[in-house]
Specification:
Order of helices and strands: EHEHHEEHEHEEHEHHHHHEHEHEHEE
Largest sheet: 6 strands, parallel
Radius of gyration: 23 Å
Distance between the termini: 57 Å
Shape: elongated
Strand order of the largest sheet: 3-2-1-4-5-6
């Protein structure tokens, strides 16, 4: 079968993953960027990306990229790339609602010989078992006869200006050998780092979900070590620096594990494992450790406050940072919220300071309105939760002056010198 050598592409979902991908494809092919959020589309049409993944200049220089929110506009495409979110629900179960809605929607617009490529993180089998039947039902077309599928997992690292779409090696796959070759050549035309063609869609899905599961487990190990070293009155960072002198010691650091990948993807794999009758132990143990780090930090801060005879109830706590990682506006699945809720359980007044955060988004997602600037001399405890460069530039004296005399300063991200803080992971 001969696929279109000059295709029209449609990228479904214009978030941290979809927009950079659409921009790169738009440099070589006619590309349609689609999002159900009309305000997001209007923002991009005006030449601005609030996620800061793509600069205004880069947006203005893309010659063949349009943005829309109308389903009818998608019918001219023959390649559809799905980059919608795949979060977890409140019970830590995969939430495929955005993926299901996108699949049902595409079933209404695809035509003969079209290809749908999924990039969203899923468990092995989701593309062919959950998404494809929906497309067949809506379209009346037969899979691998009338239309085809591919899977090429996203590897976007929000806020990272070095590792970009084109410089990260791309895993590709297709529902037939011919489709796999076509999908691989399509991505290879924009990815300078090259590609790796997996033998099947399931292999590509599994590769994606274990990338972040591995990182999650490594961080969980370091978090558990930090708890142990704290009880032994040993500085964790000093231990890690010493161990890091060995050539094959992995340079992980303790901290809160949130975001759209590391804190989410393992639950997709464990969900599928349980579905086939296997109860994963190591993966879920790592998740329990990482999900509990916010509460652990609060317990340490509260103990320090009690030792200084600081009354916890009605105390003022400043948490510096709300995003899930440094120098990035992404709030998805931030575990800083765990500390906010835990401090409030003690009756403390919590204020959040984060210059990267959109206050409207923070209010919508978590019911939190970050302060514009912290007051000097106000706080009984200060927690450095995110390693923003601005916080590092403030220095220990400025940060400590935000607190009252005798306030507790706790540094999760090793922002300040160890002798200038009262505690750290």
């Amino acid at each position: 079968m001969l696929f279109n050598k000059d295709p029209i592409l449609a990228v479904i979902g214009l978030g941290y993953v979809g927009l950079p991908l659409a921009v790169e494809f738009g440099k070589q092919y006619k590309t349609i960027g689609f999002d159900i959020n009309q305000s997001r589309v209007e923002e991009l049409l005006a030449g601005h990306d609030s996620t800061q993944e793509v600069s205004d200049q880069e947006l203005s220089e893309v010659c063949d990229l349009t943005f829309c929110s109308q389903l009818e506009d998608l019918k001219q495409a023959c390649i559809y790339i799905v980059t919608v979110p795949t979060p977890i629900d409140q019970h830590k179960r995969p939430d495929l609602a955005p993926l299901i809605k996108a699949s049902e929607m595409l079933g209404k617009v695809i035509g003969k010989d079209d290809i749908i490529i999924y990039e969203s993180t899923v468990y092995p089998g989701a593309t062919e078992e959950d998404c494809i039947p929906l497309i067949e039902k809506e379209s009346g077309l037969v899979f691998n006869e009338d239309f085809f599928a591919g899977y090429s997992p996203e590897r976007i690292n929000p806020g990272d200006k070095k590792h970009r779409v084109t410089t990260i090696k791309k895993v590709t796959s297709g529902s037939t050998p011919e489709v796999a070759d076509y999908v691989d050549s399509l991505y290879s035309s924009i990815i300078t780092a090259g590609s790796h063609k997996a033998s099947s869609i399931k292999v590509a899905e599994a590769a994606k979900v274990i990338e972040n599961t591995q990182r999650d487990l490594n961080i969980a190990l370091i978090n558990e070590l930090a708890v142990i070293f704290n009880r032994l009155n040993i500085d964790t960072e000093e231990v890690l620096l010493a161990a890091g002198t060995k050539w094959n010691f992995l340079p992980f650091r303790p901290g809160l594990v949130g975001g759209h990948c590391i804190g989410v993807d393992p639950y997709y794999l464990t969900h599928k494992a349980k579905e086939i009758g296997y109860h994963p132990e190591v993966i879920l143990a790592g998740r329990r450790i990482n999900d509990g780090m916010g509460q652990y930090v609060v317990s340490q801060v509260v103990k320090m406050m009690i030792k200084r005879r600081i009354h916890i109830e009605d105390s003022n706590i400043l948490i510096m940072g709300l995003t899930f990682k440094e120098d990035c506006p992404d709030l998805r699945n931030t575990r800083v919220i765990d500390m906010v809720e835990e401090f409030r359980e003690y009756g403390a007044n919590v204020e959040i300071f984060d210059p990267w955060v959109n206050p409207i988004e923070a209010e919508h997602e978590y019911g939190i309105t970050p302060i514009q600037e912290p007051d000097t001399g106000k706080y009984e405890a200060i927690v450095l939760a995110v390693g923003h460069k601005k916080f590092k530039a403030m220095g220990p004296e400025t940060i400590r002056n935000l607190g009252r005399e005798g306030c507790v300063v706790y540094d999760i991200k090793y922002i300040l010198p160890p002798d200038t803080v009262d505690g750290r992971l």
